[in-house]
Specification:
heterodimer; A: alpha/beta; six-stranded mixed beta sheet; 18 helices; 17 strands; elongated; B: mainly alpha; 10 helices
Chain lengths: ~375, ~240
């Protein structure tokens, strides 16, 4: 847990004092990622760097796991905080192994322990130790270097990590991959992480909480969903973007929105049964057809069921799209737009039908938060339609 | 292919030319005459190397800590002034420095070593200083951020990354040093200058060459040695030669 108490930084410049961070007050719970977000010069990086005293605070205190860090020696403090910077900052004179083991060596671990740790960490960041341990940073691509940067920060297993735009210098495709890998690692490691970014999409993806900064002040500190749904003022509103309701799609997964259990028919059922089922559940278009393993293989449309006689197995249409319960809604919405469909069967990891997701269900879910505080839902829903 | 053929032909031509020059020099007795100075050349070369080693060694021992010191943030306010001072110091001709040191320290090896030392100081200080300043700020931030002390940062990050530039300074300094040692003869320091200047005075070109050729060879050998050292010592990751 990181607690920041009234942290202030005033820089003395030739043009007079400049307040880079103004009484910042925030708390990051154990195991969460907090993204500091804002335009450049807003004080987010200053706030981050005051935690490990790369920038000494003018006033205020930082508590890590309840301990006031102002009592700690700067060097000890930093060795217990993982630090990743945008320029990566691998030492070009050292091999990858030496880079990763820099902190353990400073802490005086014995050789076998830190060598084993280097191998373990390389495997964790999906690089082959046999290939990379003895290489030099200049022999690696940008994405590989940043993985090593993260591995170096994790080396001594610090409870807290500070990351200053860690994926900023990587091309968009690799950035997505590294972000995903990092989130997967974080699920196991449960570090308390402070992360500076200027990219709202990255923030929404990575963060448990987002802190928006402006002119040295903390403007809003909320979960991504609350931030997108209820921006506090016009600055936050413009910063998160006009499509903020769409961005929320990414924060919700299929399991949260789908209707289950899903009614379905098998190939052996007659079309009358299918029609009966549809009417019973109020489906206006179609019903899902599953095989013996409960896996969706297609659908029977209402029109066919009304006008034809026979078995479902003979009169079905192949599937247009399929949603996995772990997919986020952004992907599902995209699939629905692509296939011009308003609903989709949802399956679990083994491919069995577990529910249905519909456009109405999605808009209803996203609209719920606006209705809750009595605001007009309509304008927001319009953006989704 | 034309080029390898041309190269081979020019090698052969050079060999023939060298043989002809050798034969000519042998026939007019030049080589024999030169060999007459063999004993002097060996002794004076030893002295020459000694002067280079002592003055160069002392210069390195003083210049590197000085460069490191000036590059520390605490001394940033005086560093540029100090570098300017050293720059002005170098514009003084080496002969003048030798003369001045003679007037202070008398005649012999001591003033020679002192003068040579002063003359080779600047390139090393300047390269150490700029080399350390040119270590990228983000490397220093990364080093500080993972909890290195100032000393650990200097030894593990800054110096290894500046080492190649520092070696370039040492190389320049020693090249100057080897070339200046002959002047040390003028204040009684010894070295191959003895043959060169005596040869000039006595109008004996062979004697002069017996001093000049080993001096030139020595400069080349020292340069190669330092280059080899740099190749071996500068870490692989920051060594443009590897």
């Amino acid at each position: 847990m990181i607690k920041i108490d009234n942290l202030t930084k005033i820089f003395d410049t030739p043009n007079g004092p400049v307040t880079a961070a103004d009484n910042i007050q925030m708390e990051i719970p154990q195991g969460e990622i907090c993204v500091l977000l804002g335009p450049s010069g807003c004080g987010k990086t200053t706030t981050l760097k005051m935690i490990n005293r790369i920038i000494p605070p003018t006033s205020g205190r930082v508590f890590i796991n309840g301990e006031d860090t102002s009592g700690l020696d700067t060097v000890d403090l930093r060795r217990n905080i993982g630090y990743v910077i945008q320029q990566i900052g691998l030492f070009p004179n050292m091999t990858i192994e030496e880079n990763i083991t820099a902190v353990p060596r400073l802490l005086g671990w014995d050789v076998n322990r830190y060598k084993a740790r280097a191998t373990e960490l390389l495997e964790m960041v999906a690089l082959d130790p046999a290939v990379f341990l003895k290489r030099y940073p200049k022999e690696l691509s940008g994405g590989q270097q940043q993985r090593i940067g993260v591995a170096r920060a994790l080396a001594a297993d610090p409870p807290v990590m500070l990351m200053d735009e860690p994926f900023g210098a990587i091309d968009p495709i690799n950035r997505e991959v590294i972000q995903d890998e990092f989130l997967k690692m974080q699920q196991e490691l449960k570090k308390t992480i402070m992360f500076v970014s200027h990219d709202i999409d990255e923030a929404v993806k990575m963060a448990n909480r987002i802190a928006i900064f402006r002119d040295g002040r903390l403007v809003q500190y909320d979960t991504p969903d609350d931030l997108l749904a209820h921006p506090k003022d016009s600055f936050v509103e413009s910063f998160v973007g006009d499509d903020r309701a769409l961005k929320r799609l990414r924060l919700v997964n299929v399991a949260q929105v789908m209707e289950s259990p899903a009614p379905c028919v098998t190939p052996q059922d007659s079309l009358e049964t299918a029609l009966q089922q549809m009417e019973e559940h109020g489906y206006s278009h179609a019903i899902t057809l599953v095989n013996q393993q409960q896996q969706p293989i297609g659908f029977v449309s209402k029109q066919v069921a009304q006008t034809t006689k026979g078995y479902c197995g003979e009169h079905y249409v192949g599937l247009k799209g399929l949603a996995n319960i772990n997919d986020d809604l952004r992907k599902i919405a995209s699939l629905m737009f692509t296939h011009d469909s308003t609903w989709m069967p949802c399956v679990d990891d083994s491919g069995r039908l577990v529910g249905h997701i519909s456009q109405r269900g999605i808009t209803h879910y996203l609209g719920a938060t606006y209705r809750r505080d009595g605001r007009q839902a309509a304008p927001y829903n319009l953006k989704l339609a | 292919m034309l080029r390898p053929a041309l190269k081979r032909a020019s090698y052969i031509l050079a060999l023939i030319l060298m043989f002809l020059i050798g034969a000519e020099l042998q026939s007019n007795g030049f080589i024999e005459e030169m060999l007459g100075y063999q004993e002097d050349v060996v002794y004076l070369t030893g002295q020459h190397i000694e002067l280079v080693a002592i003055s160069g060694g002392i210069a390195i021992l003083i210049a590197i800590p000085l460069g490191v010191l000036l590059s520390r943030p605490g001394l940033a306010h005086i560093a540029e002034t100090a570098m300017q001072g050293l720059n002005i110091g170098t514009t003084i001709p080496t002969l003048a420095i030798l003369a001045l040191s003679m007037s202070l320290l008398g005649i012999g090896t001591l003033p020679a070593v002192f003068g040579l030392c002063v003359a080779s100081l600047l390139p090393i200080v300047r390269n150490t200083y700029t080399g350390l300043l040119e270590v990228p700020a983000h490397l220093r931030e990364a080093a500080a951020g993972i909890g290195m002390t100032a000393r650990q940062m200097l030894l593990q990050v800054e110096i290894p990354n500046a080492l190649f530039v520092m070696f370039a300074g040492i190389r320049t300094a020693l090249a100057i040093n080897v070339g200046t040692v002959p002047l040390a003869f003028l204040i009684g320091g010894g070295g191959l200058g003895e043959l060169i200047f005596t040869g000039i005075d006595l109008d004996e070109p062979v004697m002069m060459l017996a001093g000049a050729i080993p001096t030139a060879l020595l400069a080349i050998v020292v340069d190669l040695l330092i280059a080899m050292l740099a190749f071996l010592i500068v870490p692989k990751g920051v060594n443009p030669l590897r």
